[in-house]
Amino acid sequence: MNKRQTRLFAIGSTLVASLVFIGLTIDSHRQFPKLTNAENITPAVTRGNDVWHANNCINCHTLFGEGAYYAPDLTKITQLRGAPYLKAFLQDPERFYDEQRHRRLMPNPDLKDEEIDDLIAFFDWVANVDNQGWPPRPILVTGSSIPGTSLTIAQQDASGPGRTQEQMPPGARPVTGDEDPIALGEALFRTASPACNACHSIAPGVNMAGPTLADLVTRAQQTIASPEYQGEAETVEDFIRESIVAPSAYLHPGDMYSAGGVSFMPTSYGESLTDEQIDQLVQYLASFK
């Protein structure tokens, strides 16, 4: 091309690129109300946003991948933790960990109950924004499953590229309807909403938002035999099922697991899971001898 053709090509390419950019920008702004659930921005959400900024929470935490990365990303926190847990945590964070042991430095923000409610409303609005998968690698609660898969991070690494199903560890293999109930229960443990392993570990002594499930059978037997137990379960399986569908029937010792006689565990599993799925989950959990 000669100089004139080159100049025209550059000008034309710039105009086309500019028009495309402007078109995409307009289309993005057109979709913002729907993607962000703008109709759900209530006065409580707005006040919660003010609480978030007034306390400089972003200096430690992140939303949508933006923030300090010193503390966990809170974009989907209300999908992992219920409102009762979040409220109790924000009222007194020190109840939930030993600072000398865990080296966590979450300060007590000294928020009023109304401010906490507003902040939780803000978190809930954020959690329901369609962020189209961003950030691509969110900070996950320890042991929780990778979005869009039934694998934990460790299982994904174990599966590795190029491995056949037979070469994968049992926990990393895709679960099909032909699997036994315990295998199906294990998949539900990772993929139910919210995921059970977002709050519970299966490692001995590793307590997260909920108590560890290691030695669950032994502890369930001891609980049922205890005079303090006021539930209706007579067997380990009944106790596990009761804990899933009516978590406040028995409150695990420890202020970090309940408040005011109400468990922090979500009460939605009885509605979101079928009876068959609950049976599968019970069989899986009943294998923790």
Automatic annotation (TrEMBL):
UniProt protein name: Cytochrome c
Cross-referenced SUPFAM superfamilies: Cytochrome c
Keywords: Electron transport, Heme, Iron, Metal-binding, Transport
Transmembrane feature ranges: none
Pfam family, one: Cytochrom_C
UniProt xrefs under PANTHER family: CYTOCHROME C-553-LIKE
Limits of the Cytochrome c domain: 43-127, 180-289
Renumbered residue ranges of the record's region Disordered: 155-175
Record PROSITE patterns: CYTC
Organism whose genome encodes this protein: Stutzerimonas zhaodongensis
Gene Ontology molecular functions: electron transfer activity; heme binding; metal ion binding
Domain of life: Bacteria
Ranges annotated as biased composition (Polar residues): 155-167
